[in-house]
Each structure stands twice: as C-alpha cells, then as structure tokens.
Amino acid sequence: xxxxxxxxxxxxxxxxxxxxxxxxxxxxxxxxxxxxxxxxxxxxxxxxxxxxxxxxxxxxxxxxxxxxxxxxxxxxxxxxxxxxxxxxxxxxxxxxxxxxxxxxxxxxxxxxxxxxxxxxxxxxxxxxxxxxxxxxxxxxxxxxxxxxxxxxxxxxxxxxxxxxxxxxxxxxxxxxxxxxxxxxxxxxx
Length: 189
Description:
Elements (H helix, E strand, L loop, with lengths): L1 H37 L1 E5 L14 E5 L2 H4 L7 E5 L7 E9 L3 E5 L2 E4 L2 E2 L24 E2 L4 E5 L9 H4 L2 E2 L3 E10 L5 E2 L2
Antiparallel strand pairs: 1-2, 2-11, 3-4, 3-11, 4-9, 5-6, 5-8, 6-7, 9-10, 11-12
C-alpha cells in the first residue's frame, strides 16, 4: 500500500511541475508579446538607406513609450509602416513635421527657408527623384498630422521624396539603440 501512495504522490508532483513549467512559459510569452506591442520593437536593418548611421544587418531597438505622450520631432529616427508595401516596416529620419515646408536646393534640404545642417548625411546630395510613387513638387508643405522622412544615405534611400509625407499615426517607434553587432552597439542620434 505504501508504494502505491508513494507512486501516486510522485505522479502528482510531476504533473504539478509540468503545469508550472507550462504556466511559466505562457507568462513569459505573454509578457514578451506585451513588451513588444507597447514598449519596444526590435528590427533588423535590411537596406543601406540609413548608412552610415545604421548599417545593413544592424539590430536596432525602437522604443514606443515616448510617442504615447508626444509627437515625433525633427531629427528623430523613426520606424513606421511602409506606405506602399503592407506588413513592412521602414526606418528613416524625421526632416519636417506638419505645416513645415521642405525644399531641395542645390543638393541641400531646406526647411522653412533654412538649409539644414545634416552631418549624418556625410555631405551626400539630396536631390528629388525623377520617378516617384506619388506626385511631389517642391517646395512641398507637409500636411498637418504628417511627417517628411528621409534616409541618411540620400543617394540610396526611397523616402518621402519617393512616397510623399507619411501619416504620423503610422509611426511604430523611436529608434534609439543599436544592439548588434558588437562594434555598432550604441545610442542612435
């Protein structure tokens, strides 16, 4: 009789242990999903449009909390839903916000009549595209509730010069940190 009770208790312990493991895995998965949905996103950079600020293959964290209480600002590096391809996220720098006027003059970006100081472009020229997805003429006034975004690698970036201003509500986060590879680890600015 004793061995039967012992086996029953052992079976009960194993079942409780398995149930504990399953619950722990579900809690970890749920917390991870909540953090990814509301706090931060992790992205792998697929193209050279933000070089040399962010390189192809870099892994970047994009935080979401700051945009719950404020709007993206000029200079922020943002992740956003691609306006042309569904289920694809892009990463670019905010150049102008709603109501501001963007112009491209002599290879430079001019916002509200002031030539931008953009050391992150490494003096690459900022020219309009000949072929675009939407009709854009310069100077261009960014509609309210929208953002003008451009890649830092101006000669290799399909950005607002190609697809126009993006809706600010399409922004999914503020890219703040490169966490891989090791030589590229650091805060984005």
